[in-house]
Structure formats: structure tokens, C-alpha cells
What we know:
The protein contains three helices and eight strands. It is mainly beta. The chain has an eight-stranded mixed sheet with strand order 5-3-2-1-4-6-7-8.
Amino acid sequence: xxxxxxxxxxxxxxxxxxxxxxxxxxxxxxxxxxxxxxxxxxxxxxxxxxxxxxxxxxxxxxxxxxxxxxxxxxxxxxxxxxxxxxxxxxxxxxxxxxxxxxxxxxxxxxxxxxxxxxxxxxxxxxxxxxxxxxxxxxxxxxxxxxxxxxxxxxxxxxx
Length: 159
């Protein structure tokens, strides 16, 4: 589990924000299973994007049941998609902020990881693992029940 939570090296020096910060700004939060990787860039080559199957929508509205999610291309300050192994399930905070981003594909099902923020929490069964940050009083990786987080995002208090 530790490898899942610490993978996805960064290629920038921006101030990193935990998942809670990414989720506030993200228009879409989904529980999704990683289906495949695609595209390559960098040296050594790494995948540019991953296709995910939406299992549950926690915030916003997913336009389709399968989304394409772009990660880091070597200098964008986003997580690399290779840190999310094929077949694993994640709670993902996603954005359509493509400023300063070479992605030409602007179809409705195309999203990206937010810049300078941790976009994902690992989901295994009914448990979520990761670093949430405030308001969950979690500055290091820990586990939460999926139902707790689903409730928080579907019934936000003070947002």
C-alpha cells in the first residue's frame, strides 16, 4: 500500500497540496478503476494518460462512464499516471484546466490531474487510503471508510 501512496514522482517544485485541497477546486470527483494507459512522452518514456471506468460520482457530473485522464508530461506539476496501476481503484479529483497544457483533445470525457495537488486516494473494498489534509485532520497517509468520504462530498458542510 505504501508504494501506491507514494508513487507518481513530481517534475516540479510547486508547493504540494493534499487531496482535500485538490477536491475543493476540482469540478469532478469520481471513484474509478484504471483500465489502461496511453500515449508516451519524456525520457524515459512514461504514459501521458490513463483511461478509467467511473464506478461512482462524488462531486460534479461525469459525462460518460469512461474518462481519459492526463497526468504529468515531464514539467506540468501534475502526478504521473503511471503511479496509478492498471486494475486499481481510486477516488480521483479531476479538472478540465488545460491552461499551459499541450493536450489538444478537448472532448467532454477528457480530464487532467490538478496541478500541484495530490489527486488520488487508493480505494480497496470499503476503505480509502491516503493523505487527505484538512478538514480531516490528516497530514500523513491513513485509512478512512469510503462511506464517510462519500457522505462528506455529497453533503458538504460549510462549503
